[in-house]
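Board notes (copied after class):
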Amino acid sequence: MGKRIILFVCLILFSSCASSPKHAKKAAQQNVYFNQAQVNALVASGRFERASQLFSTHQSMYGSKNELLYLMDRAYTLQLAGKYDESIRYFEQAKNKIDALYTRSVSNIASTWMVNDNLAPYRGEAFEHILVNVLQGLNYLTLGDLTEALVEARDADRKFQVLCDLYCHQKNIYSEDGFARMLFGIMYESQQERQDVNDALISYKKALQAYENGFYKTAARGVPRLLKENALAVAQYLGFPEFRNLQQKFNDVAFVPFQEKSQKGEIYLIHFNGLSPLKHATNVAVPLPDGVVQLAFPQYDPRDYEIRSSELVAVKSNGQKFSAGTEVAADVEAIAKRSLEGRKAWLYTKAALRPLGKYAVESRAAQRTEEEHGELAGWVVRGASSLYNLYSEQAD
């Protein structure tokens, strides 16, 4: 039986998917220099061990509202450092935190409407939740535990079902992930039992649908050739009618039959390339007759990276070389931006109503102050309220 080493190309670094953690006053007093730039620089230079060590003493730098981001960053950096058992532990904590945060308190929701989004804990984006399953699955695969890796696949499938119930009818909102489905399909296929191969075909078909339709089509760079080859191979092996349909659809794609593949070794190279975009708020001050309101809208800024592609080369003992180039299977930057675009109407409504609500409260307070203490006092309240509005308005 052939052995499969599951290794693609993927733009990712958790520590930039959400708002950057700010320097806390306490840390400044301790003269501690720790920020994302330092972590990113260490990771880029291959000093993964040092990068992972920073997290053990600097959790406070993330602040109380960014615990999930801290857990994801730490787990991912530990994975890069080859500390897979520790990485598993922190990814599990991240998954538990996600579940806990979605049992939301009414007070936190209300505070995001009345003051700003940053009063509520960061809950992560849907695509980040799936990335946790993907990376955790890779942890288990690296340790040779395919059973636990498939647990991650089933957990992700549960999340996809929830997302589909909510958003499948909206093509501009993330509810499926071609890369995740493809990777989980490879995991199922590697079991080589007929039921598992059938599950692999299901995953491959969902991956194809994700790459070809709706949200993921605009956030990806086409269907990876590898996905076409694997889908053809397992469909032929199972003898399902889908094989003929796939063969007609991908008539220019040559593939190795499943039985032949199962007698050989396979290597899948996953290349984590570049940094995901930085998320920040864009602020617009709007003057009104009695003061100023500020609208805050989140946006992602891309970050360039030098490596555009990579190639895996294998050399036999007789000197013969075999090589394979990489394809972009998941562009996290595009996915993040597309996710934000899909929620724009909701975010813009929230961004507009929140400062207007503040303005209404502030105007009433200024009016009462003027009635009780005079015109000057009323103007003082209006000025202070406008400053508070400008200061407090922040996007998630």
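Comment from the instructor: The first helix runs from residue 25 to 29. The mean pLDDT is 77.
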